[in-house]
Amino acid sequence: MAYEIKVNKIPQSRIAQLDQKNIQFGRLYADHMLVAHYEDGVWGSPEIVPFENISLSPATTFMHYGQAIFEGVKAYRNAEGGVQIFRPESNWKRMNKSAERMGMPDLPEELFVEGMRKLIEVDAAWVPTEPGCSLYIRPFMIATDEFVGVRPATKFTFMIITSPAAAYYSKPVSIYVQDEFVRAFPGGIGMTKAAGNYGACMYPAQQIQKMGYDQILWTDGFEHKYVQEIGTMNVFFVIGDKVITPDLNAGTILAGVTRDSVITLLKEKGVTVEERPISIDEIEAAYKNGSLKEAFGTGTAASVAPIGKLTFHTDVMQLRPVEEWETMNWIKTTLDDIRYGRKADNHNWVLKVC
Ligand code: COI
């Protein structure tokens, strides 16, 4: 089905509010947003309208039962001054996996990818020109039945909003290995970008932030032995000359688009990448014998973020200076070169907008 995307432009752009030297993640939103509604088994045509508050009944389903999913994508200013989006089809596929698990409707590719392309074209001026910056794109879907009875909803709204972004973490992150609370079990929703996955992590996050840590590294729910993901990022360890990252087989870890890009590029370079269960004991042993060279997180918002310190119980693993990290620095530069159009896009990852 071909959608006609109506565009209703804001009378006066708010772009003057954008201070490119002082961008804070998720604080300022671009002029427009995309909205589409699902009812009676079909998606209506999307509309691009001025970014504004929306009005919803207090009985709206997602507010009560959490049928809500989202994605994170980024648009970059390329070397010619144009704008390009990184791997939107991969996010579209993942959104539909989340939708299926959450009893929500499939989104047609055209609605997601072409809708996003058109929105970014309309708000291209909001894609920062400052080095290392981008426009963060947040597609999301919510269940909008006005009904507090518990049943899968029948009405849904899909929206895309965007926000200028700089580096998510300004310094190496300090991570606390969690072995009390659990993020996900096999058969649950750990592999989805369901809003509730993030909500359930807030209390444990508050606890470790009070202790001075940035984020949690989750362990598996059965033994609290195998590391999983960080919640905002997938995790990689460089041990000896191998790169190791937890595999996705149990369905408890998000299949990160950045994770996949990192694995693909490292393998092409000839680096051995192992996707397999990795225990905290193995990481500690590698730290103690000096073979734990690097540890980093990957995600759309965070990009590639070095882990400066990793704490398990009272054991503090302090990693060597990031400047010496060959693998992470190579992958970060290589990925950025592709995202910002400084290097050939041999994988067809980039969607040119304008
Ligand atoms: C992303 O990297 O896009 C995320 O979803 C992480 C976080 C901002 C929720």
TrEMBL record:
Pfam families associated with the record: Aminotran_4
Pathway annotation: Amino-acid biosynthesis; L-leucine biosynthesis; L-leucine from 3-methyl-2-oxobutanoate: step 4/4; Amino-acid biosynthesis; L-isoleucine biosynthesis; L-isoleucine from 2-oxobutanoate: step 4/4; Amino-acid biosynthesis; L-valine biosynthesis; L-valine from pyruvate: step 4/4
Needed co-factor(s): pyridoxal 5'-phosphate
Broad enzyme group: transferase
Enzyme Commission number(s) of this protein: 2.6.1.42
Keywords, in A-Z order: Amino-acid biosynthesis, Aminotransferase, Branched-chain amino acid biosynthesis, Pyridoxal phosphate, Transferase
Catalytic reaction equation(s): L-valine + 2-oxoglutarate = 3-methyl-2-oxobutanoate + L-glutamate; L-leucine + 2-oxoglutarate = 4-methyl-2-oxopentanoate + L-glutamate; L-isoleucine + 2-oxoglutarate = (S)-3-methyl-2-oxopentanoate + L-glutamate
Keyword Transferase: yes
GO molecular-function terms, A-Z: transaminase activity
Known role: Acts on leucine, isoleucine and valine.
Family, similarity comment: Belongs to the class-IV pyridoxal-phosphate-dependent aminotransferase family.
Identification of the protein by name: Branched-chain-amino-acid aminotransferase
Source organism per UniProt: Rurimicrobium arvi
